[in-house]
Fold each of these.
Amino acid sequence: MNEGIALFNETLTEAVSKNKRFLARRTSYIPSFARIGINIGKSGKIRETLAESENLVVPPVLIISVTNDCNLACAGCYACSQHRDKSAEMSAAQIERVVDEAATLGVCVVMIAGGEPFLKPDILKLPKKHPELLFVMFTNGLLLTGDTAAAVRKLKNLVPVLSLEGGRQLTDARRGEGVYDAVTAVMRSLDESGQLFGVSVTLTSVNYDEIVRSDYLKRMQDAGCRAAFLIEYVPCGAEDLSLCLTDEQKAHLRATEKDLYHRHDMLIVSLPGNEDPYGGCLASGRGFLHIGSNGSLEACPFAPYSDTNVKDMPLKQALKSRLIQEVRHNHGKLKESRGGCALKENAEWVKSLQSRSS
Ligand code: SF4
């Protein structure tokens, strides 16, 4: 197995099943995470066997954008900027079929994104049906109340991750008036109910200092977050390049990532983070793959180009995508770029692969 991929699998196991700090204040989740940890081991062997016997690369992590519908209209929303055809969206049954297949192929973590995932009917059926898999759901948090919150609390393999942009001023500026207070009120009720949850923040040149150079993460930890996802901003187009992290901020983040992790007792995940130890970009199946809301199998959420669609074929067949293989075989070329995604920076090249495959 490729060294970089092997190291990523180790990091994943470490982060999920061995991270006592992560579960320290949520002990009711320990049995479920023990089960998830065992499955991470098993699924690693399945992936290794498929790689050796069928030359098939299956990622440990599958990101699925289940809908483009959303109850917010944030400025510069990445999902909205893709203008995906609503009528082509996968049904709940199609998504369920894909997750069933992914579980048998060795995927062990499913990240659910959108749009707003809680707007997708039957979305909670997935973690209920697959207690062996870890589900991380990226949500704006506004629907995580009442019966939905009660249903989520029963699913010990599901971790909702609520989006903020920083404090009240930055969050409301992008997400709308009153959103910060609404989301932090949801966080308080999740914390009181003993729910395992996290926060995700898109790191931009504007909010970097507030998030990384202040006690912001400590305050999120005190609010009950057991994980923080720091996602480096990826520009939708030329018009918002100024929001990309500056070279100084990128260098500071690389230099302080480990310290941030050790200074907090919650899990801190920096995306894409320093991919060098893994031999470069983890997209295209090396660490993860993305399925768009229309079923297209893509190397990364930030490179919406594809030559296979899981609505038309089994996931195993889609994984043999020539475009994905080509990107993977050239991952060494995909070095750090302006903005958080090397593939985005090489979008024209990826696009050319799509036209060559079709
Ligand atoms: S909540 Fe997410 S998907 Fe919805 S508009 Fe905001 S950024 Fe876009």
Note: The radius of gyration is 19 Å.
Amino acid sequence: MLCQIVPEKCIACGLCQIYAPTVFDYTDDGLVFFKEEPLSKEIIVKEEQLETCLKAYQKCPTRAILLDHN
Ligand code: SF4
């Protein structure tokens, strides 16, 4: 599954790392980036990360995380 982030929408709430600590990390300002690909705005989520990533997607208050189910 494709996961995208929109750091411009991120309000640095920290929820996504609580729910998916292996997928998301933050800059010093608390803005989201992908832990394994810090320069990328999209990744293919690994099978074992799907469940936690879906939780983070659902909890993000600003829709700064997008998931493409196709
Ligand atoms: S849950 Fe959304 S708003 Fe909160 S830190 Fe993560 S991407 Fe940013």
Note: The helical segments are 15-19, 50-59.
